[in-house]
């Protein structure tokens, strides 16, 4: 089934309109740079260049200055990513409680599902008391087995993909 250009264009226009509203809302707040960058990523899934330009204009900054800020943080993406990202903590607490098994299980599932989701290894989520821990998109999940982690990720993929 071919994509219908009108629907794709209107979906993109809706993203820019929603971002514009978010920018206006954030603009009055001092130190709103990160909030605006998060809004871009929330609407587009990554820091889409034209949308970053909108933020730069609103803040009176250059795109280069915004990218300078964004590159400091690991949670900003500069190219499109799958809609679901599982970040598995492999720091000491999580490692000792089975993080490597979770990481392996999720990586294998991602390959088998043709990259329906992405798996990232991270050093610390600040959830040591809930080890092993992971973030599925922005939701913290702790004290889980590899099978429970996979079920959580797959449920998120199903919800997003419909």
Task: Give a structural overview.
The chain is an alpha+beta fold and 162 residues long. The chain has 2 domains: 5-70; 85-161, Glutaredoxin, CATH 3.40.30. Helix content is 55%, strand content 11%. The protein contains 7 helices and 4 strands; from the N terminus they run ααααβααβββα. It has a 4-stranded mixed β-sheet with strand order 2-1-3-4, with helices on one face. α1 (5-27) runs antiparallel to α2. The longest helix is centred in the first third of the chain and has 23 residues, at 5-27. The two termini are 17 Å apart.
CATH class of the largest domain: Alpha Beta
Tell me which CATH architecture of the largest domain applies here.
Answer: 3-Layer(aba) Sandwich
Would you list the SSEs in sequence order as H and E? HHHHEHHEEEH
Helix segment tally: 7
Number of domains: 2
Quote the CATH topology of the largest domain: Glutaredoxin
Overall body shape: globular
Summary tags:
four-stranded mixed sheet; 55% helix; 2 domains; Glutaredoxin; 7 helices; 162 residues; alpha+beta
Q: How would you sum up this structure in a few lines?
A:
With 162 residues, the protein is an alpha+beta fold.
Topology:
Blueprint: H1 5-27, H2 33-44, H3 49-59, H4 63-70, E1 85-89, H5 92-96, H6 99-112, E2 118-122, E3 133-136, E4 139-142, H7 146-161
Parallel strand pairs: 1-2
Antiparallel strand pairs: 1-3, 3-4
Helix pairs in contact: 1-2, 1-3, 2-3, 3-4, 6-7
């Amino acid at each position: 089934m071919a994509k219908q250009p009108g629907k794709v264009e209107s979906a993109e226009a809706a993203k820019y309109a929603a971002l514009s509203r978010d920018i206006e809302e954030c603009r009055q707040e001092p130190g709103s740079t990160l909030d605006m960058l998060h809004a871009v990523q929330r609407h587009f899934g990554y820091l889409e260049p034209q949308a970053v330009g909108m933020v730069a204009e609103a803040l009176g900054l250059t795109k280069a200055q915004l990218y300078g800020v964004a590159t400091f943080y690991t949670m900003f993406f500069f190219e499109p990513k799958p809609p679901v990202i599982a970040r598995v903590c492999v720091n000491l607490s999580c490692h000792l409680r089975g993080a490597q098994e979770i990481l392996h299980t999720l990586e294998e599932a991602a390959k088998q599902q043709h990259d329906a989701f992405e798996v990232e290894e991270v050093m610390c989520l600040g959830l040591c008391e809930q080890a092993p821990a992971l973030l599925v998109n922005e939701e913290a999940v702790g004290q889980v087995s590899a099978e429970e982690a996979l079920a959580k990720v797959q449920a998120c993929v199903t919800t997003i993909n419909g």
